[in-house]
Here is the input.
Amino acid sequence: MQLDKHADYIAAYGSKKDDYEYTLSEYLRMSGIYWGLTVMDLMGQLPRMNRQEIIDFIKACQHECGGLSASIGHDPHLLYTLSAVQILCLYDNVDALDVDKVVEYIKGLQQENGSFAGDKWGEIDTRFSFCAVATLALLGKMDSINVDKAVEFVLSCMNFDGGFGCRPGSESHAGQIYCCSGFLSLTGQLHQVNADLLGWWLCERQLPSGGLNGRPEKLPDVCYSWWVLASLKIIGRIHWIDKAKLRSFILACQDEETGGFADRPGDMVDPFHTLFGIAGLSLLGDEQIKPVNPVLCMPEDVLQRRDLQPDLLS
Amino acid sequence: MHGRVKVKSTAQQEEEKRKEREKKLKVYLAARDACFSKRKEGIWDEGALQVTQQLLSSNPDFGTLWNYRRETLMHLETVRDEDEVQKIYEAELSFLESCLKVNPKSYGSWHHRGWVSNRLPRPDWARELGLCDRCLSLDDRNFHCWDYRRVVVKMSGVPVDQELAFTDRLIGSNFSNYSSWHYRSTLLPLLHPESPEEPAPPPRRASSSPPPSPQSRSHRVCEEQLLKEYELVQNAFFTDPNDQSAWFYYRWLLGRAEREEIISCMFVSREEERVSVAFSRAVNSAGLLLVLDGQPQRVEWRSVHPRFKHSPVWICDLAPGTISDVTNEHNLTVHWMEKHTHRDCALYTGRTESWCRDSATDQELFRSDLSVEKTSVLQSELQSCNQLRELEPLNKWCLLTIILLMRALDPLGYEKETLAHFQTLEVSRAKTRPLDAEQEVGSLTSSFSFFLFSPSRQEVDSMRSAYYGDLCSKFMIENTILKMEYAEVRVFSISDKSLTTLCHLDQLLLVTHINLSSNQLHRLPPQFAMLQCLEVLEANNNSIENLEGVYHLPKLEEVLLKNNKISTLADLEPLASCPKLKRLDLRGNPVTQVANVEAELTALLPSVVDLLL
Here is the structure.
């Protein structure tokens, strides 16, 4: 494994600001920064990143309503509000934000049925339920929303196979399952999950190559090493995966030339897959990488600092 | 970010690429800046629609631009008449269709389409359904499209049976149809709800557990339809035994009815002056009330381990002297207020303890009572699956389904076959059997042929061997509980069954003796503390390194842990919470090699008089 090369790749990534692909992904910049910083911290390389520049950037992304946007000039959204708070936790500088306003923004997005819209335009998705409670948990402000109703909505998205989808009636998908398991962990409701049934569905994501897919009949992807693996860890069934085979798949997704991880061996690398490859390896027990928290995808030591230890099933 | 193959190229090709990207970047930035500056100036006209259109066609995930479009459309609604607005929105739908052609998986595009359909003065839901049909014919796993379809169906009142027929068509013609089966799982309960004889669920309050989603409970489909569905699924997996979807769906169909929410067991002990209560599911202690001889008691409920805020077992201690006098008879009742249910337990004169419970059989815990028709259907399906197995001995779905069918029909009767099938599934964990001297000579040649020709030695699903190990353990524990209840004893004995995990511990509240020897357990988890009546714990010959669950067990006297993996004194700390512990066997554990171990243990566990190291 080539940790130094991966660190070099991430450190250099943001500096090519005139890069076409980099600019195209401006609409998710805040999350991109969170992916880069988190993987650097997991590799013990966070100091190589430009702390002040990033904090200033975040400040410039907080809107009057309290929500944060992906980048300057873009509109606020729950996704980027969470990413921003996660970054500030890594930097132990949460008070760079108007926290009360953030809480107000999140509170305002909860609907009558307990669900959360991503922003004022009303898209409903269990991803946003996760973003809401994760942000509030990091800020220590979970009681500002109607948690019971939020739980009711998420549980209404549970399917025949024990998994969860975007909305009630939506098909189970590993990404949504991660969000809902994380949500139920943060709200102390993991006992509502059918861990044996869901754990089976999740361990069936492992393909002969050792890699994991996101739902039946799909291709494996290194990012599912996170969504699936973290979900299994949260529900206490991570041992149902063949760890050795998964590890070899993840390592095969490295690019030894450029550093970084791609979704599949031979494809182009990016920071998103680099984070989830490294985080997956951490969950598998790699001692060269810092322990990662399966609920929040942040280094455990950062969460200890915030005094946040979400429940996990055993 | 996904599926971009890395292509190697020469230095010249790289340079050309770089120039092209620089050009593209310039164009992109100009367009983006045009949008942002127009928006800043508050311009909401067709021009705004034009500039955003350019960018969104190739970058539909640029959420802010959809927002700007929506602002513009909303503004135009106020300054144009209804016909013009209708035209504008229809143009929007056309634009969206072209976006979706390029990228059918953009959250932004689908959300915007839903937003537009909602605002259209005269929505054409048939057209929208047609769009969904076309999109699904290209990719019937596109969940964005399925979700949009569900909205269209709801808004336009498409009948459920029509949608069921739609799934029939897709399932009939296509290989990768998990999404269709999933949709069926949500439609069936709507079309064929549970029979009217089933008890109505009790009224729910805001603070109580949320209603289970209709799609998660297969019993909410009337039996007649359920049996038809079995046939449909069976056809699918016999046609293509490697299509996983049908097997997943079938497992759901085999699932049992939801348990009635009750207090399943109540145990009262004079000696500890304690009441232990087991519930049919994990609960929170708020809303539990203990009444003693008609008087509500002010007690504090605690779960068996500080870790658990929700637990199927709760304990409360009565004030000293309340029930300790064995000459007094007492009547106790526990009320589970939220579920409007309660349980009574009489503690008679001369008796030191008392209990009241529903057995696992009464609760249909591990097996439902099946109707004659259902039994017959499942039996013939078992037969068919066995036939399939002859043709496809390596098909793990078939093997697993055979196991599940046997569990549904007769868990105890099929125990032996079940174990054999699990062996086949998890072959990488197959136990080694020592060969005696006579066999050794011939074993070399015979083992070769064994590997080459014996199908049961080939890899069926070794990647998931840990799953099968735990599942088999669960089924063996269920069988042992059933046998224990038939025998009407409080001894739970399950040794030499390759147990890898413990479960259903909430069913063992009354057990006094447990034998878990010669298994593959790594720990006694916190839930083990639910065994409140335990007196003797035998768990020799395992791999136990963690004793978290041997915690505050008030009656525990004997703990036998020979040949395990307990390595530090800290591992033994939970035992200090068991006040009656007299006998402890730790022979064959790494901890016996720790310096000064005997003195340390005597200090840690003063009640132990018989310590074997």
Summary: Chain A touches chain B through 77 residues (CB under 8 Å). The longest helix of chain A spans residues 29-42. The longest strand of chain A covers residues 261-262.
